[in-house]
Task: structure prediction
Amino acid sequence: MSRPFNRRGLLGAFALAPLTAAPALATAHPDAEILRLERQWRQAGEVLADSLRELNAARDIVHPVLSEWPASLARTPWEQRQDDCLNNVFVRMRVRFRWTPPRDESGFSAAVWTGAGLRRAIAGAVPHLGRGGLTPHRIRRWKALLPQADAFDSRVEAAEARAGLKAAEARKREAERVRGEATGALSACVATTPEGLAALVRVVGGYRWKDEGGAWPNLLRSAAIVSGVGLDALEHQHASLRGPEVAAAPAPQRKSGARS
Result:
């Protein structure tokens, strides 16, 4: 997993943070940019959590329609094998299916053709498979499936429109973009005040990689203590990251979808 923050940056923030707050009469906070980015990161996280709830609710509406997929649209094992071989000539024929139905009795999980996927396969068949052999047979099969695929696509798209699925997906992508930009910018920041260090600790404390052990738990715990961030707010899993009074209690359960 990539690490948006490096250890040197956090160590530098810890070393540079004074033990007293900046003067109250200062016209500009030394870590104003860090504080602004942390607010952006936090607000985007709230929007992301809301959008995930909306997305899950929309999927609950769409799922019953998807579950009624026509069995004839399931791709054959041969068709799926071509889709999985990314380095061969079939890469241009990969189908963009919207849902994978449950496994059948044989344990094989079939992928469902869409109209767009069938058209790409038909257009790419002769250039990639040649004119002879089974190519004509496969083209006839794909053309015969087009009416069913188009009809099923229309039903799914109507359900997605009723549920507001695409709008929820767009909000989720935008929140992820904004949050990612704030994370990237914060990774280059070094705090010089307890407030700035606290902002970095809150952001770093939300990432799972900080529970990998080694120096990370104690480093983050130390930075939290110096900056005044409560240890119970670090979303930690390892007891070494928690204070003695917190270590005895069960670790809080992570809310699904609350963090990206």
User: Anything to note?
Assistant: Confidence is low (pLDDT under 50) at residues 84-99, 104-109, 243-260. DSSP finds nine helices and no strands in the chain. The radius of gyration is 26 Å.
